[in-house]
Amino acid sequence: MPDSITPFLFERRNVRGAWVEIQSGVADMLGHRNYSPDVRRLVGESCVAIALLAAQTAFKNRLSLQFQHGHGPLKLLVAQSDPGLNVRGMAKADRDARGVLDELMNGGVLGLVVEGARGGQNYQALVQATGDTLAIALERYFSQSEQLPTRLCFAGGADRLRGLLIQRLPVLAVKNHRQGTATEHVPVHLHLGQGVAELFHRGRCRLVDQHLLGLRLG
Asked: Global pTM?
């Protein structure tokens, strides 16, 4: 379903994930500022990433993903998701900025901020922003900060954004997921994107409440 995010769980494999697809408002958001093609792609990917991260966090607060303090043509990349899963993204970059993430950032940090996470205080985790792609940088974040083996995939164009997150969970975390609300076990290809179906064509997953997404101009 467009403009939605669907978390899922493969209990027997201790694997969780989420599939997101955003369509409404993508062209307006990415065309709202005069981004170069490479920066426009990163803004779109960051919106998908923050939606995927919001689906996995236990805190239902405003969530922000920030790349900053680099020395390259990309000065700032920010994506936010509010408690209603309204997503926005924006960047500050040189008009002709181009290249992979490492070249665009040239150093800097990746920060994940949860506002009012614990006792009204913000939670913030910082790691070095390294990697040719946003997916690689975020995978390293999860490896270093959360100790969760993670894979991310992004795809999109001028009017549609899609993404997939898959994580290997500790056994205790899987047990906690089982206690939550979910639909019955169903073949994955009936509810998720074709990419998920091809990855887990022999598996059966438990879907965890699908959520609608909103997209706002950055």
From this structure: 0.82
